[in-house]
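Board notes, transcribed. Complex of a protein with dinuclear copper ion.
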Amino acid sequence: MSAPPAPSSPSVLSPAGMEAAALSELSWVLFIGAAVIFVGVMVLLGWTLRRGPRRAVPNAWWVVGGGLVFPVTVLSALLLYSTARTAGLERTLAQPPLVVTVTGRLWWWEVRYRDPAGGPDVVLANELRLPVGRATQLGLTADELIHSLWVPELGGKRDLVPGRVNHLVVTPRRAGVFRGQCAEYCGLQHAKMALHVVALPQAEFESWLARQARPASTTPPAQPAAAEATLAARGRAAFVAQGCAACHSVRGHAEGAPRGPDLTHVGGRLYLGAGALPNEAGAFKRWLVGVQDIKPGARMPDYAHLDAATLDALAAYLEQLR
Ligand code: CUA
């Protein structure tokens, strides 16, 4: 597949969501306000020092005005403003939000959508696709350790804690790919625990979700032109023979224990290994052979002991799971 679109470099200075815009506005008000007050105090200090030591003792008005009235006024105004501005983020949403559950695992993200057609949940990993202009309520939880989700362009951080569900509402305002990161130290591969958020126009999002809800495509091995299809069919058999399904599900092909990421449509994802490797040509083979070099300590072992033909077949199989 072609190289995935590069995510914009994560920055709180270029908000792409309603919630991030509110936080950004709040930060600028605080920053500019603090800068103005700092400069004002420095000017007063300079003025006082220039007047010389004999007149350095201020009169009572300065003490009461500058030391009491001014800070109380400024801090009260800020309290009212920030309360009002952030209360807006928690307000009852006008239309029912899209609900997506994100579970922090070691060291990847399980992402779970309700099937709009009423089927079983749509499960994927490390990629969160959201519609532009609609609020999404993320239900955040974890299986073993505390993680924290932070997508700077879309909103603030929120912890994922085992045994409880925290909520975070995000409303993307423009389409794009935004990199999120685990923001709570969670062990060896904390740094390689990225989540990519792809914001799509509503219609595109709906057709994407409908495709994700389908089971994996069946490779037609009988097609004459399809040497690739034959290779993929051999890979599918190897996937089962090598016991990959002990940890990974490919819906419709092999229903595995949900220990590792669901791979039903893994070929269409932007990255492998929670942002560890762009999903470009050859990526699956590199991952299979070198997981422990690319992401040391990951719970998946290397498969470097497999012969080249089996590796090629497995990679071809995974690649066509779009
Ligand atoms: Cu998960 Cu840090």
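Residues 89 and 201 are 22 Å apart (CA to CA). The mean pLDDT is 89.
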